[in-house]
Design brief:
The protein is an alpha/beta fold. The protein is built from twelve helices and twelve strands. The chain has a single domain, classed as TIM Barrel. The longest helix is centred in the middle third of the chain and has 17 residues. It is globular, with a radius of gyration of 20 Å.
Length: about 325
Amino acid sequence: MSDIIHRPRRMRRTEHLRALVRETRLAPEDLVLPLFACPGENVRREVSSMPGVFNLSVDEVAREAAAAYEAGVRGVILFGLPETKDETASGAYSERGIVQQAARAVRKAVPDMVVIADTCLCEYTSHGHCGVVRRGEVLNDETLELLARTAVSQAEAGADIVAPSAMMDGQVSAIRDALDGSGLESVAIMSYAVKYASAFYGPFREAADSAPAFGDRRAYQMDAGNAREAMREAELDYTEGADILMVKPATAYLDILRQVRDRFDLPAAAYHVSGEYAMIKAAAQKGWIDERRVMLETLTCIKRAGADLILTYYATEAAKALRNAE
C-alpha cells in the first residue's frame, strides 16, 4: 500500500477539476486595448513590427473600440499621431488634437467604454522627447504645465482616465490640481508610476512615430536594475493622488509589479508592451510556439503577479479566446 498522503495530481486530472481550483482567473474585463489614432478617413495602416496592430483614423478607432467592446473588453487607451509637430507639443493639448477627436468618437460609438488617454508629449514634439527641451536637456518643471493642459483637454473631450507617462517629477500632483481646478474632479489618473527605460519599447516607437531625435530617455525613465527606486516612484504618485499605479513593461518586471501590489492599496496596472507582444507574434509566425496558449499564459502570469488591469495589444484577441473557452 502506498504511503503517499498528498496527491496534488488528483485536482489536475481533468479540465473541469483544474478549473474548479484555479487560483488566478483572467477575464476580458481585465484587459485594456491600446489604439493609435492618426489623421484621415478609412485609414488602417498596419505597423510592420507589430502584426495585427494598426494606425487608425478616428472613424476606424471608433470601429475598433466597438469591436473590442463586443468581444468583452471594457477599456481602451488612446495614443495620437498628429498631422504636425512642434517644440511645445501643441497638438497634445489642442481641442482638435487627434486623441481628443478619438476620445469623442469612441464616447459616441461606445458610450459605456472606459476611455483612457495617454498623457504625454513625445508624439507631439518635433524632437520626440517627453517634455520641453532647452540646450539638449528635458526640463521637468516647465513640462508640468503642458502635461496639465493636455490632461484637462483630454478630460474635456470625454476621457474617463488620463494616464501621464512622461515620468516627470510631480506630474500627478500638477495634473490633479489642474483637473480639480477645471471642475473635473471625477476624472481619474492612472499614473505610469514605474516606467523603465526599456528596450522593449522599440515597436511602439514605430507605431507612434515617437523616437527621440537625439539621445534617449534614460534621464527620466527608470534604470532596469532598480527596484527600491521603483517603490519610491510609486509612493510619490500615491501621495500625489494617483488612482491607479502602473508598472511598465510587464513580463520582464513581474517582481516589481508584485511589490507594488503588496505595498499599495490602489488598483495596479501593467503594460504588456510592444516588444513583448512582437516577440510572441514573431515566434508564432515562425511556428515555434502556440500563439494562443502563450498569449493567455503570459497575460495570466501578469495577473497572477498582481495586475488588476492589463494593457495589451492582444486585448480583443484574448477576450475572444476567453469567451470561446467558457
